[in-house]
């Protein structure tokens, strides 16, 4: 490393986050359970300061530092800010839920923030090893978070399944990376791309490495046929952790895939397009069809997630700036929808009661018409019904594949979207047309109620004026394409 050229300014948010979480970890040792709200408040403050630092160091072009292991570009800035906002919302939404279940502890906050640090590294990595280090930091934190309920057999089982399958996926990824290194002699994304494009790399070894890398990436996204962990982990873990897994990590996983395929392996676009097309078709089909028969709503949303990952891949298949920006837009909207859907489940859960089945949502409109309306917005948006923003997200990725001539894939996506609308509308039917089976009062903290309301209404507002967010995603992607 050339210490004279070392520039730590672009990594200032990550350095602050690492330092702050380490200090929080030590401070929490002296905070009793009765005063755990202090840890909660400090965690939110850390998120706000990190986001402010991110805005301060933002530049309209890519800056490489740490021997080209770290890149700060408009894409990473937009995604990191979305991850900070998502993590902030997750902490607010899960406060009461975690308190009722005895997991409102320092470990919950520090592991969450360390997971966020791992996501940041994934988003800004420009080297295979830094990508992998970020991924493993995130994964290890998620394994531990899921297992926080040590007395819960389903949670422990979910953590073990996630750990074993995650280790397998990491092995596939590492094996693929080793093949790429053997073929090109480098692990730096830009150097690998140049080596492959120039023809100096061993093409057979590169293609074999690509197969293993795509398999590992598909697991991290939860796409078919590497989706087995998703429904079991969503159902077995607590609702708070299911929300954690389904929110900010999806943003990091999207950029993770983009760095690998659109930056390091861009010259092989013709090879990975076909592989992603198969994965997208299987994900949309199996995700939507299997979700129809689910009665556990967390498991239903897990299969819904699998189908959404199939739609997200449509943008990546396009292999151009418009497609990548459409996929980024879709990922941001997916996270917004997930926060609302799981937020309502958290609001309806209470000490001794888990809102997990469709029956638990029956008659929600009779109990609280506002929460029923927010859940309706989330379900309609996930189904892609206008004027909700989910419609424009699906339209964007479908148009991306139409523009490159894959009309059959666009038609298939539309058909799968129609099939998926069934189980989303079934949730709405339970909320509005069935009689309530539980008449207990819904007690929600004021901060959660306000943030959840803003989150839900945003789905409607962004549906009315999606242009600004679409333009922001497109501009960020185009400005970063010099590095991609």
Automatic annotation (TrEMBL):
Membrane topology: Multi-pass membrane protein
Signal sequence region: none
Record EC number: 7.1.1.-
The keyword Zinc appears for this protein: no
Transmembrane segments annotated in the record for this chain: 15-31, 38-57, 77-94, 106-123, 129-148, 160-181, 201-219, 240-262, 274-293, 300-321, 327-348, 369-389, 395-425
Keyword Transmembrane tagged: yes
Taxonomic superkingdom: Bacteria
Name of the molecule in the record: NADH-quinone oxidoreductase subunit N
MF terms (GO), sorted A to Z: oxidoreductase activity
Complex formation: NDH-1 is composed of 14 different subunits. Subunits NuoA, H, J, K, L, M, N constitute the membrane sector of the complex.
Chief location bin: membrane
InterPro entries xrefs: NADH-Q_OxRdtase_suN/2, ND/Mrp_TM
């Amino acid at each position: 490393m050339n210490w004279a050229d070392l520039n730590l300014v672009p990594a200032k948010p990550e350095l602050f986050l690492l330092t702050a979480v380490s200090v929080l970890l030590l401070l929490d040792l002296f905070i009793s359970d009765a005063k755990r709200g202090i840890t909660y408040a400090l965690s939110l403050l850390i998120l706000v300061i990190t986001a402010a630092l991110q805005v301060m160091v933002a530049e309209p072009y890519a800056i490489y530092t740490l021997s080209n292991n770290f890149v700060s570009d408009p894409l990473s800035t937009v995604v990191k800010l979305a991850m900070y906002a998502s993590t902030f919302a997750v902490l607010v939404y899960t406060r009461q839920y975690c308190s009722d279940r005895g997991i409102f502890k320092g470990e919950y906050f520090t592991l969450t923030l360390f997971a966020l640090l791992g996501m940041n590294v994934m988003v800004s990595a420009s080297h295979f090893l830094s990508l992998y280090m970020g991924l493993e930091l995130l994964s290890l934190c998620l394994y531990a978070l899921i297992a926080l309920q040590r007395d819960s057999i389903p949670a422990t089982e979910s953590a073990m399944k996630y750990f074993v399958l995650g280790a397998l996926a990491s092995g596939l990824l590492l094996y693929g990376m080793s093949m790429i290194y053997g073929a090109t002699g480098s692990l730096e994304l830009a150097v690998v791309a140049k080596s492959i494009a120039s023809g100096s790399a061993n093409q057979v070894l590169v293609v074999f490495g690509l197969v293993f890398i795509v398999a590992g990436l598909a697991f991290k996204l939860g796409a078919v046929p590497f989706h087995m962990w998703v429904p079991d982990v969503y159902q077995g873990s607590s609702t708070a952790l299911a929300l954690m897994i389904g929110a900010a990590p999806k943003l990091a996983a999207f950029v993770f895939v983009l760095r690998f395929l659109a930056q390091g392996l861009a010259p092989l676009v013709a090879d990975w397009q076909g592989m992603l097309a198969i994965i997208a078709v299987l994900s949309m089909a199996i995700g939507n069809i299997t979700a129809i028969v689910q009665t556990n709503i967390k498991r239903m949303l897990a299969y819904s997630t699998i189908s959404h990952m199939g739609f997200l891949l449509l943008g990546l298949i396009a292999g151009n700036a418009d497609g990548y920006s459409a996929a980024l837009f879709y990922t941001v909207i997916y996270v917004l929808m997930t926060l609302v859907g799981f937020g309502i489940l958290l609001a309806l859960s209470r000490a001794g009661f888990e809102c997990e089945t469709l029956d638990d949502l029956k008659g929600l409109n009779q109990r609280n018409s506002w929460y029923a309306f927010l859940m309706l917005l989330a379900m309609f948006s996930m189904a892609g019904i206008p004027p909700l923003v989910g419609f424009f997200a699906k339209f964007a990725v479908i148009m991306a594949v139409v523009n490159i001539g894959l009309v059959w894939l666009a038609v298939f996506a539309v058909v799968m979207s129609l099939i998926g609308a069934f189980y989303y509308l079934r949730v709405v039917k339970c909320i509005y047309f069935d009689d309530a089976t539980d008449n207990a009062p819904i007690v929600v903290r004021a901060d959660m109620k306000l943030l959840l309301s803003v989150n839900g209404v945003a789905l409607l507002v962004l549906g009315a004026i999606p242009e600004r967010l679409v333009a922001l995603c497109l501009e960020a992607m185009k400005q970063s394409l010099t590095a991609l």
